[in-house]
Design a protein that fits this description.
This protein has one domain (3-216). Helix content is 22%, strand content 31%. The protein contains 4 helices and 11 strands; from the N terminus they run H-H-E-E-E-E-E-E-H-H-E-E-E-E-E. It has helices at 3-16, 28-31, 111-124, 136-151, and strands spanning 38-40, 48-55, 61-69, 85-92, 97-98, 105-106, 160-166, 169-178, 181-187, 192-199, 208-210. Strands 2-3-4-10-9-8-7 form a 7-stranded antiparallel beta sheet. Helix 3 (111-124) runs antiparallel to helix 4. The longest helix is centred in the middle third of the chain and has 16 residues, at 136-151. Residues 1-22, 59-79 are annotated as: Disordered. Residues 8-20 have a biased composition (Low complexity). Residues 68-79 have a biased composition (Basic and acidic residues).
Length: 219
Amino acid sequence: METTSRVGAQASAAEGGQSSPFARRTVDGYLQASFPWYGLDEAFTGPRWLMQVGTSADGAVEHGSTGHGDEPSVRNEGTEDKERFAVVVTIAANPVRRSPDGTGLLEATSVSSAAWLAGEGLLSFTWPGQMDHTLRDDWLKQQTETAWVLADDLTGPAWSTLSLPVDGVPTPFHYRESEFGWVLAGSTQAGVHVGAYGRGMSAYGLGFAAIKNIGAYTA
C-alpha cells in the first residue's frame, strides 16, 4: 500500500470518514458514488444503518461504510459484551492516476487500504476500561499506527485467511482478531475493495453482496 494511500485515507477520515463515528450522514453522499456499495447479504435480517462517506480533495466519493446489527458504543461503557455489529467498508479500486488538473498523482487504493480503514474504524469504537480520557488520544494514535503497520503486511503472521461469499462467489479475505474485535479485507469482482470490522458477530458466518437499494439503510 502506497504511503500516499494512507495520507489520503487519513484526510478523508478527517473530512468525513470514520474518525467521527457518531456523526451521521444522509443517503445523498452514497448516491454520488461511481462504484457499487457493499453490505451483508440477505442472510442477515437485522437492522441496517448508514455511517459516512469519505471524499477526495475534489469532492469525489472514494469510500464509505454501512452498519449492520446494533449501533456500537464506545467499548468501555459496559455494553460491549452485549453488542453485535458488523460494519462493511467499501473503497473504490483505483490505480495510481493523474489528478484532474494534471499537476500530480492521486493515491492508489488496494486491499491494504480497505484493511486500514476497517482497522481504524474498529478503533473509533474502542476505549479500554480504566483509561483516563486525557490519555485516549495518545492511545488512539499508537493503535492507529499499529493498524497501519498491520494493514501494510497482509501476508504477515498477524493475519490468517478465510473464504467468504461475495455476490455468491467464494472470495478470499485477510482476517485478524484482537481484544477489541475482528477486521477483514478482500477484493470483489465488481472493482471495489471491501473491508469489515465488528464485535459480537462471528466473521466466519458472514456473506457480502452489492447493495441494491442503499435507501433501505436508515440514516
